[in-house]
Design brief:
One of its GO terms (cellular component) is membrane. The chain is α/β, with parallel strands linked by helices. The chain is built from ten helices and nine strands. The strands form two sheets. Strands 1-3-2-4-5-8-9 form a seven-stranded mixed β-sheet, sandwiched between helices.
Length: about 250
């Protein structure tokens, strides 16, 4: 297992969660959600993806990002919840073959792009370059642009961008298209998937028309007035999507 990861809670906790960050983020960016999960009895692990958190990236295929995480499933290690945000959703879906068929796993996709065309990849490339080239926004600038974010989240956003390998932009050059709809139409019986989609009017990654209709074991929730960074803007929405033991009345 890579040493480039953040952990919260006790390894002996009865439940486990694996959190997969998005492009230009880092493992620490899950701090707020991770602390909430620990309070609910989880042990939480968040790896730094290739090219992030000070790591180098030399292979830019999305499948390699998933393969790099295979050690987190060694020795039959399993998770109750696996959550991805943005680009991390593509990686999360690529992890499905690693999951044990004997355990039910909840997959939560936070504003995923279900179908990505070459035009969209080019657009994402331009955003990546804008975020990482020359001037990296300060914490104060992030706070001004995102007034509902906590200062902690703004600090971690700045940290993630500062620690990304600029060569990771090659991901957008090497992958010309991507489709997750086939996976979502055929979700294995031991997996449940919830898509948390941000407001389509706020530059959401998730285009609702791309989500398969009537797919089994797939739930979709759309949040009006909430943008791409659902975990920062409305962390309660994230926690509501996680199956938790109900108190006995």
């Amino acid at each position: 297992m890579s040493n480039s990861a953040s952990q919260w809670g006790s390894p002996t906790a009865s439940r486990r969660a694996l959190l997969i960050h998005g492009m230009t983020m880092c493992s620490n960016s899950w701090e707020g959600i991770a602390q909430r999960l620990v309070a609910e009895g989880f042990f939480v692990i968040a790896p730094n993806l290739l090219g992030h958190g000070g790591r180098r990236c030399t292979n830019y295929q999305i499948s390699e990002f998933a393969e790099d995480l295979r050690p987190y499933f060694a020795l039959d290690t399993s998770y109750d919840v696996i959550m991805g945000h943005s680009f991390g959703c593509l990686v999360t879906l690529s992890l499905l073959p690693f999951l044990p068929k004997t355990k039910e796993t909840t997959i939560i996709l936070v504003d995923p792009a279900i179908e990505i065309t070459e035009v969209q990849f080019n657009s994402y490339q331009n955003v990546f370059l804008r975020w990482t080239a020359n001037h990296v926004n300060t914490t104060e600038e992030h706070m001004a642009e995102n007034p509902v974010w906590s200062r902690r989240d703004c600090v971690l956003r700045t940290l993630g961008i500062a620690m990304v390998d600029p060569d990771t932009v090659e991901v957008f050059k090497r992958n010309k298209s991507w489709s997750s709809s086939g996976l979502l139409k055929n979700i294995p019986p031991h997996i449940k998937v919830t898509i948390l989609a941000s407001d389509p009017k706020l530059d959401a990654n998730c285009i609702l028309e791309h989500i398969p209709r009537d797919a089994e074991r797939l739930d979709v929730k759309v949040f009006t007035g909430i943008g791409h960074w659902i975990q920062y803007e409305c962390p309660d929405a994230i926690m509501d999507a996680i199956p938790l033991p109900r108190a006995k009345l």
